[in-house]
Amino acid sequence: MPKIFLVTGETSGDIHGAHLALALRELNPGVELIGVGGSRMLAAGVSLLPHVKRVDAMGVPGIRQLIQGWKTLRTLTSYLQRERFDVIILIDSPGLNLRLAKAIAPRSCKIIYYIAPQVWAWGSRRLTLIRRVISHVLAILPFEEAYFQKAGIPCTYVGHPLLDELKPAYDMVHERQELGLNREDLVIGLLPGSRAREVREVLPAFLRSVEQIRIPYPRVQVLLAQAHSLSDSMVNELLGPFSQQVKVVKGLSNEVMAASNLLLVTSGTATLQAALIGTPMVVVYRTSPLTYHIAKRLVKIPYISLVNILAGQEIVPELIQDRMTPDYIAHEALGILQDVRRQQDMTQAFHTIRTALGGGGSVETGCSLYPCRGDRMKTFWRIVSYLREYRLRLLGAFVCSAGVAGLSAVYAWLVQPVLDGIFIERNQEMLLILPLAVLGVAILKASFAYGQGYLMSYVGHWLVSDIRQQLFIHIVRLPIRFHDANTSGRLMARVISDVNEMANAIPSVLKDIFQQGLTFVAMLSVVFYQNWKLATIVLVVLPFSSLVLVRVGRRIRKLSKRGQESIGRMASVLKEAFSGIKIVKAYGQEEKEADRFSLTNQAFRTAKVKSSQTSAMASPLLEVIGVCGVAFIIWYGGGLVIAGEMKPGEFFSFLAAMFMAYAPLRKMSGANESVQRALAGAQRVFQVLDLESELAKDEGKKILPPMAKNLEFSGVTFRYEGSDEAALHGINFTINAGEVVAFVGASGSGKTTLVSLVPRFYRPTEGTVKIDGEDIRLVDRSSLRRQIGIVSQETVLFDDTIRNNIAYGRLDASEEAVIEAARAAFAWEFIERLPHGLDTLVGENGLRLSGGQRQRLAIARAILRDPPILILDEATSALDSESEKLVQKALANLVKARTTLIIAHRLSTVQHADRIVVMNRGKIEEIGTHATLLQQGGLYTRLYQTQFLLTQPEPLPTTS
Question: Domain named ABC transmembrane type-1: which ranges (predicted)?
């Protein structure tokens, strides 16, 4: 049972520690969690140490806090030096955690830092300490991964914890209704911070700036987000005469942000929080002149808010020190409120930041980078388990290896009769026999060596091929949520690079472990046969050699894993750059992409150089240790020969066997390095293989006949894994066979999630989805998906012929059927003009074709599959007008007599749908035709008007 210790020293760290504890327990229900934290970690099931239950390091510590912190550090250090843990996770609070890591660093367990110090801004001096005492950093900002890796610190980006705490989307109208506000008026939100000192400094300036904003906007409504750490009396005192004009909201900062048109916010995490919600803001910050002077000397970045730091430019205005005045604040606020284009640019930048923060996996994945003690041997025996299928060949290889080892020992033994019989006794008979014996041994040994080498290589390469095949099949069968969380570059690295580490190692390792191990044993036998006293000296030297192998192997394994992670990131960068090469060139960003690649390339190079450095160290060390033993043996054994207690032939046979035993030991050292690299790759491979596939969860066996009646959603609720907020709430409605239904709504409203339940990409958390009354969870998954065709906005074509791309969903289709489908999709005309017609290669993802041509091939593929249910994801949104007309015609042929679900991003494309389902915050808000929904004047009307107004300033040119 894994045993993990968590340490956090701040209020926010207690929240993040609780989320981490829940995720770890979900990952492994048997995990034992012990740590330091507050009430939230206690509620999450962490056993808190009673004598250090609370450590509060918020703000500048006073004498009392310093004494308490010192006592806590001493207590924790003593405890962690006594107890054994598999992993220690440090969360935020660098003042406490870095000191603790330094005190406990010489340990066998791994120390992981989650929410690491922002050394990229002010503390590069700490990089050396982090590199020395921290096993792995889990980064929460995208650029931190490359920064730490460039400094030689293992790091994985896991996403910002705010993403787990925020809802997928916020609706301003709903939040205003919840807070009792007029939904039509201008609303300004005030977020002055959570510390009394900064609130006293900032809030009066906010209030006076709002007075100036009221001049052009007299009906402005003001919200104040009051943190739990602030007392009501202090807030009322600061509001004074403004208390009747400001609505105070306690503990609902997210809701205040979502309900506001503009925010006035103190620099800190709240700026990122506001950006993720999507509300424009003005950022302020003021500290003491001394602190500001010190910060200016230490801080290396030009911005103070996380929003601007992530964007790399000033997206939101920052008013610092002397510029934090009511006049400046009001000026910047009015500048944003009166400039719609500036608001849109700010919102778009926020969306880009949210997208950048939204990838990288999960916290528990980061923790799994360092498996618990004993997992290495489990990994080794798991690899061995694959060898059962080849046991007969392995037996043959073992016999050959034993032959090579035994005959090598004969070489060493022959030294004695050669020296004593020929050179000392001058025996003529020996002069004839011994050369023939040596020749016969050589021929026989060569035969055994060939058999052993061939059989071991055969087994090794087939073994790796089997694992790679199993890994690929398993990955394509993993649920969609796994692919959502992992980039294609990282998956490619698992299948190619990680397995290659095994492929490069296993054949040679099998050969070296069998042959060199047996050879070493055979040579030891000769050594003991010739003189057991000298042999004992050899055995005394061996443990020192083993110690070198263990230490070197441990470091090589760690560096190999770091190198493999770098390859994964490099593959992602390469794929993005090559697949988006037109965008890269169009925006002139070749240098930027070169810099991105350079960072990953440097990280890989650093890991490989250090690994080579460590490998190169092993042989010289072993040689020095061996020479020390040899020198002593020559001195002691030579004395025995001079004293007449040992024949010269015996001594030189002993020396020959000893030297010949050293060679296998050195080769096993090289094999050890390969083993560590293979284990590092195998652990990453098995991490994926151990994930549960769709087949493992497939409960259904019944074959689903073609849909004839309806598709029904009954009480459907869905939550994404790791999210507390439901993406869908209580969905109930029915789609009749042959009906065209469109799903519309704002981004994050749940329309794509809802449609994704139909092909069972995701399973409902609650409720059922039925086809003709059959619960789709209880039917055969393949028979379900055979009934569904998908045409997405991002067309996917394979690097194959046009014929094979169209027939992808029906591999047995005749050429006539393929041509008929191409005609129906209005694709045959351009296919005929191509040099090789249907046999034309389309290139990677169809890059040799235009967007419209690719889309029509995707439609032809769906037509040929002839599915009763069709899912369209705004298939024309990225096309020019001419291509769009052809694709619309092709879609008209495709939807005939089919049940069609359209995910609509442009309302103009779904006006003729039989029904339109309007979604909002995971719920169905309205259902009806285009005309009836416009008459109702609800959310659909507002969405329609918004899109209509946005398109008015840029009308299409007319032709005469």
Answer: 395-677
